[in-house]
Design goal:
This protein is an alpha/beta fold. 47% of the residues lie in helices and 12% in strands. The chain contains 9 helices and 6 strands; from the N terminus they run E-H-H-H-H-H-E-H-E-H-E-H-E-E-H.
Length: 214
């Protein structure tokens, strides 16, 4: 394999679930605040983890908003799939080849666990880093994972859908790989990535083939 360590973003990368999360937040925030919420209002709050977003939207009633969010998030997964075809098979192939796998997400650990369960990816990752109420420093998380595994940045990559994923990978000195195989990933204009990714893959299988060609 081309690399020894591959860390992945979760939402919009391994799961096509951004609409699931946004819908759940919109319902939860509306329930607590007593007014309708638009998608655009939810988008503006993304950055902190689930607890942080609920604090920003619901103030002192954030625990109630968080409980409702988790309920709606599970319901959204039951209503429609967020599985990205080929992702499980890719992770199986990488793991079988000895590639060390990690997950770095800005979401809370609770939301991560719900998503992994519903897309069938629980247990694939030796290291998992979640966000906080203040956001997530993905570059620092990448550094922690490399230190844990005892591997060099030159032998690692971070795969994500968003410009900040690419930026975090570049800051950490690992290969910045952009996935473009989910609905949310297709919404980012190529010029939004500064610095640009080292490679862009529109199909999961193409990324796996690229890894094998190393």
């Amino acid at each position: 394999m081309r690399l020894k360590v591959v860390a992945f973003d979760l939402d919009g990368t391994l799961a096509d679930n951004m609409a699931h999360a946004t819908d759940a937040y919109r319902v939860a925030f509306g329930h607590v605040t007593g007014r309708p919420w638009r998608d655009e209002e939810v988008y503006r709050l993304y950055g902190p983890n689930c607890e942080g977003m609920c604090m920003a939207a619901a103030g002192d009633r954030w625990p109630e908003a968080l409980e409702r969010f988790y309920a709606e998030f599970r319901r959204a997964y039951e209503a429609r799939s967020a599985v990205v075809p080929g992702v499980r098979e890719m992770l199986e192939a990488l793991g079988a080849a000895g590639v060390k796998l990690a997950l770095i997400s800005g979401g809370s650990r609770g939301a991560i666990d719900i998503t992994l369960e519903h897309v069938g990816l629980t247990g694939f990752f030796g290291q998992v880093r979640s966000g906080s109420v203040h956001g997530v420093d993905k570059a620092a998380c990448i550094g922690e994972i490399l230190s844990h595994y005892g591997e060099a940045a030159a032998d690692a990559a971070y795969v994500g859908d968003a410009p900040y994923d690419v930026k975090a990978a570049a800051e950490a000195g690992v290969l910045p790989i952009r996935c473009a195989w989910t609905a949310s990933a297709s919404g980012f204009h190529p010029r939004a990535h500064d610095p640009p990714p080292a490679a862009v893959f529109e199909r999961v299988g193409d990324f796996l083939a690229w890894m094998k060609d190393g």
